[in-house]
Amino acid sequence: MNREEISRIAHADHPIKAPLGDDSVRALLAKGLPRGDERVLDLGCGTGEWLLRALETGTGVHAEGVDVSPEALAEADEAATRRGLRQRLVLHDQDAAKFTSPQPFDLVLSVGAAHAFGGLLPTLAAAREHLAPGGSVLVGDGFWDGTPSAEAVGMLGDFDDLATTVDRVVADGWTPVHGHVSTRRELDDYEWACWGGLAGWALDHGDDPQAPEVLATAGTRRTEWLHTYRDTFGFLTLVLRRTPDRS
Ligand SMILES: C[S@@+](CC[C@H](N)C(=O)[O-])C[C@H]1O[C@@H](n2cnc3c(N)ncnc32)[C@H](O)[C@@H]1O
Fold first, then answer.
1. What is the pLDDT of residues 146-155, one digit of tens each?
2. Residue ranges per domain, the chain?
3. Which end of the chain is less congested by CB atoms within 10 angstroms, N or C?
4. Where is the secretion signal located (predicted)?
């Protein structure tokens, strides 16, 4: 089974592919969408769940999503149609780092996709290119909540701690106007949804020739989480606006 299929099954019970609960997503989007007529862009939109929830906040909202996964975009397309949102959504199958648009956006999202740009600050630089005057960026990325093992860094990347992460964002010319640090429960719910969901699929599809491999993958990923990064991985989502240049 390929990575995309594994990911589709693993996220079936957690369509937001990041460790945030529904209330947290709602509160973050509310901060980024104060008017109800915004143009929203998601760089690394996956199956489009952030955009679909943004579109559901008001009929005046229009959204565009960019991702390199045709499978994820096909799911976004199908879900948007099912939820009556397709006419206000444009999907782009391309590298988000190379995406250009003739019109700017009032809210630029990028959650769990910083690797596509080479880290958090390059993600913000890319988001800034698309931002309308007075607009906001909603960005989500990891941080280390304690000293990670070399294995954890090798697996997830080299993050800063929470305070240093925010300091670097502020030093880069951004002002956080809202933020959410994923709770222990959100972090655990996400991992259990992914690896428990994948294991459950394998048990429910015992006749499928791929079931043993899927069950083994679920076990490996659960073990990696519990032994390698559960105690040190944190996730921060910020709503940012540009800090006025007073010089
Ligand atoms: C962890 S998922 C997050 C999806 C979505 N933002 C969410 O929170 O539900 C990361 C996404 O980034 C996408 N991605 C990775 N590299 C990319 C690139 N260079 N350009 C666009 N998307 C990319 C992946 O295909 C995947 O859908």
1. 999 999 999 9
2. 19-183+233-242
3. C
4. none
CATH topology of domain 19-183+233-242: Rossmann fold (3.40.50)
For ligand 1, atom 13, the nearest C-alpha belongs to: 44
Q: What stretch of H or E contains 106? A: strand 105-111
**Cα–ligand 1 centroid distance for 207 (angstroms):** 32
Using an 8 Å Cβ cutoff, are 88 and 62 in contact? yes
Q: Ligand 1, residues 22, 47, 52, 68: which to mutate, most atoms within 8 A of Cβ?
A: 68
Q: Are 218 and 198 in contact (CB under 8 A)?
A: yes
> pTM of the full predicted structure?
0.96
User: What was the pLDDT predicted at 149?
Assistant: 97
